[in-house]
Amino acid sequence: MKLIKHINNNFALAEDSVGNIVVVQGKGIGFGMLPRELTSFENVTRTYYDIDKSCFDIINTIPNEIITLSSKVVDRVMGELDCGLSPNIVFTLADHIYFSIERYRKNISVKPPIINDVKFLYEKEYAIGLYTLDLIREELHVILPKEEAAFIALHIINSIQTAADQEAGYFIIMSDIVKIIEERFDLKINTDGFNYSRFASHMNYLFQRFKNKEVLQSKNERLFESVKNEYSEEFACVEEIADYLSYTLQIDLNNEEKMYLMLHINRLCSREVNSQ
Q1: CA Rg value for the chain
Q2: Residue 242: what pLDDT?
Q3: Where in the chain are all domains bearing CATH 1.10.1790.10?
Q4: Residue by residue, what is the 3-state secondary structure of 47-83?
Q5: Quick one: pLDDT at residue 184?
Q6: Residue ranges, the chain, pLDDT below 70
């Protein structure tokens, strides 16, 4: 194996014997002159294949001990769940854990509206979430609230590669979003109706765009500000949903996405009120 590019002192890109590019983890593995042949695997703790380049920023900004902890959690997932996982899960889960700890230290709490649904519908994933909290307490000396186990379970569900399980994960996310809207506007949304179906389709397109890295872009800030001012309650709702999506799926909505979401929420709520 040949080390070809430095990521940081504990991570490097390498090329294996058949030409695959792999991320290598090990104490001091990225230190020194590159490229060079790796003559001994004594200091290699883990290798990662098919890693997206976006994960390199995570590696460089998150403490190594959190990535190592995330690896232990992923090993637990692979041992207990019969499913395929995103190759990036070690790093995206580490990013989620780091974000959770930062939020906790700033006394910012986010509670998933359907925590009990996650707990009872996805017992194995929720149990792994509790195991993760135990690891964080034992290894990082941080005691996160029990609700975080549900967020970790959601992250695992959305990293599962089978289509059926991904749909299940999105169903949970959508249920949470509906509860946020219902509480904000004090109404009940008919999830069997056409109005909801249209809104859910918009959200599904949003999820797919982010999955495929196809982000809406526009320079029309004036239109965004106009919509924001006209629909102030919808904007407050969108900000709450944006925080939730950032926390659960690491999706960061830009102003273009927020503007369309405001309009969709306004249409959904207006039609639901008229139909009741």
Answers
A1: 21
A2: 93
A3: 52-161, 180-275
A4: EEECCCCCHHHHHHHCCHHHHHHHHHHHHHHHHHCCC
A5: 92
A6: 108-115, 161-169, 194, 212-220, 274-276
CA dihedral (64, 70, 72, 74) positive or negative:
negative
Q: What is the pLDDT of residues 156-169, one digit of tens each?
A: 887 875 545 556 66
- Type of residue numbered 196: Y
Amino acid in the structure at residue 23 = V
Query: How many Cβ atoms sit within 10 Å of the Cβ of residue 107?
Result: 6
Q: What is the structure's pLDDT at 29?
A: 83
Classify residue 169 as exposed, middle or buried by CB count within 10 Å of its CB (0-12, 13-18, 19+): buried
What residues contact residue 110 under an 8 Å CB cut-off, 6+ apart? 103, 151, 243, 244, 247
Q: What is the pLDDT of residue 164?
A: 54
The 44-49 sheet, strands edge to edge: 36-37, 2-8, 11-15, 21-26, 44-49
CATH of 180-275 given 2.40.50.180, 1.20.1640.10, 1.10.1790.10, 2.60.40.60: 1.10.1790.10
pLDDT recorded at residue 74 = 94
Q: What is the pLDDT of residue 75?
A: 93
Q: Provide CATH 2.30.24.10 ranges for the chain.
A: 1-49
Strand (E) positions, the chain?
Answer: 2-8, 11-15, 21-26, 36-37, 44-49
Amino acid symbol at 54: S
Question: What number of residues does the chain have?
Answer: 276
The span from the CA of 35 to the CA of 266, in Å, is: 56
Q: What is the CATH architecture of 1-49?
A: Roll (2.30)
Helix axes 255-275, 232-249, angle to 10 degrees: 120
52-161 is a CATH 2.30.30.180 domain: no
Indicate yes or no: pTM above 0.85: no
